[in-house]
User: Fold these one by one.
Assistant:
Number 1:
Amino acid sequence: MKVIELLKSKEWSGKVIDCVLRFALSFALALAQVFGGYAPLALGMIGASGAGLRGVSALIGASAGAVLFLPFSHALRTFAAGVLIFTANNAFFDLKLYKKRAFLPLLCAGMMFSVEFVYVLRDGVGEAANCLMALLLCALGAMSGKENRCPVCGGQMTAGKWYTQQGRRYLTKAHCETDGDFYIRVRLVHEDEALRVSRLVYEPTEQVAKSYAALAQKPRARRPRRRRSARVKAKPAEPKNP
């Protein structure tokens, strides 16, 4: 009964949906075979999912997709690289270096190369070119979730609904499994015929929490419905008298 009640709660239902989506996306990305059987986008998804349940879900999805659809050799290599990426995520997520933008992509590419370099030495220059392009795609895939990281531990955060504020500002509440809730505010500013976007992460202070609660409780403004103009049927033309 307690498990069912937890699943019904908004916090846990959001986590379950997030994990299911990461599993499905990693499974689908494992189908994207490039350069002779590599699945770098699935490995990048494992890296972008971070530590914890989200990373496990992405690892299981990528491994299942690799076993079902990749050649046996590439499936084993994908599974081994995925385990290394997930392990490295859990080992380094609490370091300051982990928060650097380039660290996670380089980490994922390095873990993948540590598995693939033996096959590169065996197969020569042609395989080296394929592996290099796959490493690049893996690094790009790992950058997909970098913008929504916890400012304390660097773990992946899940954001809720965005609410509009005055001055082209938007506010949402994000949740980290380790450090709790934070608030994210995005502002759009026009400067010199260009659009600049600023993003700030706030700690859950009383003032910001009240602002968010007021926006969440504010009723939605309903758009006025357009009245359809009644169509007037054209009268049939009367026959002219000769």
Number 2:
Amino acid sequence: MSPDYDPNTVLPGFQARAIDLGQCSRDLDDLAALLTSNRHLEERRHLAPFFGEHPHLSLFLGSYAVDLDAYDRLAHEFDLFGLFAADIVVGDCAAKNYCFVELEGEFLALCLGEFLCCPLLGA
């Protein structure tokens, strides 16, 4: 790490967050309801608003990145060079590792189905 690195720094566009696995588990119930009530999920109409309203589940998406030991930074619609935006970015501030998530309708819905059986969350 550079000598001037401050682990309390929050980059512009990010929130400092602590994941609450209990809330995340409750968010899974909301996700299950979303998945069962909508046959065709659209990124802008369904997925982006859902994850924006469920930050603990957004943070938990970082568990797919094996280099993240903590999930303590979160950004939605994070601007990349003024050309692109990452739908969700989850970070481990101390390790300076980040997981970028792109929401893509039905494909993501299939991947998120795995969360419904997640032993870590007691589901």
